[in-house]
Amino acid sequence: MEPLHQLLMLSSLLLVAGICFMPQVLAAEQDKVQIVHYQPEQVHLAFGESVLEMVVTWNTRDNTNESICEFGIEGLQQLAKSPHGPTAFVDGGAKKATQYIHRVTLTKLEANSTYRYHCGSQLGWSATYWFRTQFSHSDWSPSLAIYGDMGVVNAASLPALQRETQRGLYDAVIHVGDFAYDMCNENGEVGDEFMRQVETVAAYVPYMVCVGNHEEKYNFSHYTNRFSMPGGSENMFYSFNMGPVHFIGFSTEFYYFTQYGLGQIVMQYDWLERDLIEANRPENRQKRPWIITFGHRPMYCSNANSDDCTNHETVVRKGLPFLDMFGLEPLFYKYGVDVELWAHEHCYERMWPMYNYTVYNGSMAEPYVNPGAPIHIISGAAGNHEGREPFLERMPPWSAFHSQDFGYLRLQAHNRSHLYFEQVSDDKKGEVIDHFWVVKDKHGAYGSHL
């Protein structure tokens, strides 16, 4: 065969081989394409340093280098940016999965107005959500949903909370610790799924939180990074005002996870006392007479388990063992806290007004009219895979009502003298299984029972 013919045949074979091989090359190149995740997800709100500031928080998988919110009453004509852009958050698990947390504060909002907003960057935007601002004064009646211990699996209360939030029933939500079960699990994917699930609540009303024991992993890093509470304490303790109520959120976990240092207990206790002193200044207590605290692990409970609230010397109540220092029951009593909200026990329990295991009802006929001590309420039954909590066979005399039903608490602060509470049962398809009024014509320090 002539060399020229050989060259032509070889060229033809190479051409055919190239054509056959090209799709495989392209497929291999396609397999190497890196998918980027610039779309915002897990959108949620929180109060800023006042009820006329709103902090919008969301996540992206990849770094967009900017964090923007467009918002407004008539349209999306206003713009707010984070001056620092997103913050990288690295999960402590084996994969060291990284995501980017975005925070933008919307300031100088008009009171009693409905705002529409979306968030993102030039690389991708969220859907458009809405929220309604509140009054900066105290002469209005806020309504809240309150619960703890809600997981990704068996989140029994979530459908009702989603529906009622979309109907405008609530001005805010308080989640009293224990999220997702647990946010750190599966390299943080369980936390991501939980935040997606609650977005239909938390993107429309302020979702105020406190830390629980299920957030402890990696020094509470998922909790401190995912949420954006006011006060600058990494979400651990803070306060905010709504209508006639001064709310105080704090960490009970400082008392249990002391490997992170005892200084956190001292720092929080000092802050709590300063905040309570400020709330009790005559001009402040007159304007917002109700003081309501929320923390995860209760001082009292009547559950048949090994939790220390069933025991007499609860560490949150009495303080550090052997020292009896930094206990919160004397502190809250001294400064006239009206109601103490708890979770941790997967149940609902309402106590009579109580201090140091002694009941101080206002009267036999009207125990919650001018009571002589704080009222403790546990609402930790929003639903998770751990199930329900059993109760003691013989209930203590300070327990007024208890239920194992999954459900959540509603609060309406009617005015300076009347609070209304009701517990909703998911088991009974939204039936109110307990309700009561707290009535006070005078607020402040209680009598001397110390």
UniProtKB/TrEMBL annotation:
Assigned keywords, A-Z: Glycoprotein, Hydrolase, Signal
InterPro entries from the UniProt entry: Calcineurin-like_PHP, Metallo-depent_PP-like, MPP_PAP, PAPs_C, PAPs_N, Purple_acid_Pase-like_N
Reaction(s) this enzyme catalyzes, per UniProt: a phosphate monoester + H2O = an alcohol + phosphate
Protein's UniProt keywords contain Nucleotide-binding: no
Signal peptide span: 1-27
Domain spans labelled Purple acid phosphatase C-terminal: 373-435
Ranges that cross the membrane: none
EC identifiers of the protein: 3.1.3.2
Record Gene3D superfamilies: 3.60.21.10, Purple acid phosphatase-like, N-terminal (2.60.40.380)
Similarity comment text for this entry: Belongs to the metallophosphoesterase superfamily. Purple acid phosphatase family.
Name of the protein described by the UniProt record: Purple acid phosphatase
Lineage: Eukaryota, Metazoa, Ecdysozoa, Arthropoda, Hexapoda
